[in-house]
Design goal:
The structure is a homodimer. By secondary structure, chain A is an alpha+beta fold. Chain A has eight helices and eleven strands. Chain A is globular, with a radius of gyration of 20 Å. The first copy, chain A, binds a DNA duplex through α7.
Chain lengths: 248, 248
DNA sequence: CGAGCCGTTGAGGGGATTCAAGCTCAGTGG
DNA sequence: CCACTGAGCTTGAATCCCCTCAACGGCTCG
């Protein structure tokens, strides 16, 4: 039953209200902090909205801040020696990105907005100072690193293995998990990447991606909702994956 | 100019000598510690040698210790819903594995010895206690998490992208980097996986892996040195990768 | 309204898989 | 000593999946 300090409501500190009422606080890094902790940080944090295709980090560069994703999806992409693009990871609501900043390391990938974003920018100095005091923050930080690692390995296992149809089905399930509203719905509305981006995620051509999407549309598993969205029959996709496991 | 305490030489504390003279100390997690730090820990650490195919961690299980690899190579493997194996990562000399233990998380993969291993087993309690005191250890821990993440994403980009020949060439380069002796040699002797394991790493069949290895052997880029080893023309492989980038 | 981007669909070819047979080599027991 | 065995590796032939090349339609935007 902590009393809310007045300055939390102070309009000159808009971030104060934002942090206290943040919809993803339980999901986000600073969910590990209590109210007092929050009071100490919110003036340093800066929330912003970013448009599609905004580049948050550039490959090869260093940066002195990280971001917590409040809403939207970002992709991590790099270029192979042959010159074509490969997307190696997606991140969404609640994810922490740019942890390399804490280690003064260069980024391996461009990090680009797939959908409009709402993010919190966190200076690395803030975390480093806080980290020495708040053990729970470091714990949370490590947990997030492990989540990213799990995600990367699941990507290898799900999105790069087997025939094109299998990879696409797994991608659709992943996109369903990244959906903001009604994440448990049986027919969630997902962000549907451009065919070229699907190709970069699944290592297939635009044409193959298009053919498979059309196929799924005909089968009723996917209903396009332009622009760039679709509703997905989650159970049907699951069933299709398992059926393929047997028929193969 | 620290004086070496007598007990470091005490034969009843064999681990004391092992830590003080450890060949991978600079590489390993506790490289972040000074001599005093080492003195406090070495009795808790337990170095052991493990045979090929030894399973260090079981998927789905939890464990209360991590390992630093002093020598050898391990693979992270899981099983797809269709029932076949997929290797999603390799780790070698100096790498820290099993960090999930610190977070009380289940392992996503089996972790299995590819070659004979020499490892240090570190109880998670030791790190958790030490972590609160030694800030540099936490820093080092985070750095290692990031290394694993980089590795996983490079795996996607290099070992799952493009035609079978390209993926194989990149795998050979990675195996060269994991070589213990003479890591800078132009013709390093590498550990050469069984064709079936190559298939699980690169998502191709045993036959395709075999055909490509034979091809490279005929081209003189690879000289088999049974059992399970080969010498690699590193420059030739590099050139082949770049040539393919252009010709494609 | 033409230009350009994106998505779709078709035809043909190539690379990988599948199915099948032979090979090498280490271990085993007669 | 050597046939026997089985696991791993190699190679061939047929098939199929996916890529390449190409054409076309819908849509946005200058």
């Amino acid at each position: 039953m902590t009393v809310v300090p007045l300055y939390r409501m102070d309009p000159r500190h808009p971030q104060a209200r934002a942090c206290a009422t943040c919809g993803v606080r339980e999901l986000a890094l600073f969910g590990a902090l209590d109210w007092e902790g929050l009071d100490r940080i919110h003036t340093h944090i800066d929330s912003r909205d970013l448009p599609i295709d905004h580049v948050l980090f550039h490959a090869g560069g260093v940066d002195d801040a990280l971001y917590t994703l409040r809403a939207g999806i970002v992709r991590f992409e790099r270029t192979t020696e042959a010159g074509d693009r490969r997307i190696v990871r997606l991140a969404g609501r609640g994810d922490l990105i740019g942890q390399e900043a804490l280690l003064n390391r260069r980024f391996a990938d461009d990090v680009v907005a797939c959908t409009p974003l709402s993010v919190c920018r966190i200076p690395k100095s803030l975390i480093l100072e806080l980290g020495s005091a708040e053990g729970s923050l470091l714990q949370e930080l490590m947990r997030r690193w492990q989540l990213a690692l799990d995600d990367a390995q699941a990507w290898v296992s799900n999105l790069t293995t087997g025939p094109a149809m299998r990879r696409m089905l797994h991608l659709l399930l992943k996109l369903a998990d990244l959906t903001e509203e009604a994440p448990l719905a049986t027919h969630p509305t997902i962000w549907l990447p451009r065919r070229e981006d699907m190709g970069a995620m699944l290592d297939m051509t635009v044409e193959t991606a298009s053919r498979i999407v059309s196929q799924l549309r005909r089968d009723g598993l996917l209903t396009l909702q332009p622009p760039r969205h679709a509703s997905l029959d989650r159970a049907g996709v699951q069933a299709a994956i398992e059926a393929r496991g047997l028929s193969a």
